[in-house]
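Figure 6 in text form: structure in, sequence out.
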């Protein structure tokens, strides 16, 4: 059960917009007239009204946060934290403000299409098993390349593409982030695994895309428009 458990949502938005080719960081570009980051935050506040939102931004982008928050008709209690040199250090900074036990969801700020069902699924499984990392099957054929320009097929049936929110109980995630940084730490799951914890996957959502290019932004706009048309 997830009743009476404090939920923390650490939203990490560290992009610079380089692949977007824009001066504005990708998390502040607009979908349907509002910043990407607005839609991401709204997904969690809509599903978990009592969750404690922790927004992690590069120090030079913190002033942008007010631009995002002013789109909300109600006042949000959001803690804003400066990020670090890597995703690991940014998440680590966000976790430092957590003082009470509960469940922590770490989500990419540029995944605005996260839905209610996935949020609750991750929360429920983390409460039961300690972790919930959403992942989806690989649809394309996959090959491994070698230095001599040859390649070999990989059985895609055993592969999964990992998404966020990566969700953990505090007693697992907080101590794990006390480790020294390693280059192999690409997400929260790898950090917790290095600390000796088993990682439990849960079913992700193919529409829970990460926006990194102009094409991704257009796709997200189209998906959101379709959802609104059928809402």
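Output sequence:
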């Amino acid at each position: 059960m997830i009743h009476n458990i404090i939920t923390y949502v650490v939203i990490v938005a560290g992009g610079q917009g380089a692949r977007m080719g824009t001066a504005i960081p990708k998390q502040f570009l607009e979908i349907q007239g509002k910043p990407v980051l607005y839609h991401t935050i709204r997904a969690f506040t809509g599903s978990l009204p009592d969750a404690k939102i922790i927004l992690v931004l590069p120090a030079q982008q913190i002033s942008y946060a007010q631009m995002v928050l002013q789109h909300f008709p109600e006042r949000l209690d959001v803690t804003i934290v400066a990020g670090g040199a890597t995703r690991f250090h940014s998440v680590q900074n966000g976790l430092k403000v957590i003082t009470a036990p509960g469940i922590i969801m770490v989500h990419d700020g540029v995944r605005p299409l996260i839905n209610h069902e996935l949020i609750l699924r991750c929360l429920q499984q983390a409460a039961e098993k300690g972790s919930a990392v959403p992942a989806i099957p690989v649809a394309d054929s996959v090959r491994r390349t070698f230095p001599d320009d040859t390649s070999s097929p990989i059985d895609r049936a055993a592969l999964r593409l990992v998404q966020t929110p990566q969700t953990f109980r505090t007693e697992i995630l907080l101590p794990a982030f006390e480790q020294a940084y390693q280059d192999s730490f690409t997400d929260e799951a790898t950090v917790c695994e290095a600390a000796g914890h088993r990682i439990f996957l849960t079913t992700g959502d193919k529409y829970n895309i990460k926006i990194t290019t102009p094409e991704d932004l257009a796709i997200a706009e189209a998906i959101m428009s379709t959802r609104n048309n059928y809402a």
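Caption detail: The chain has seven helices and twelve strands.
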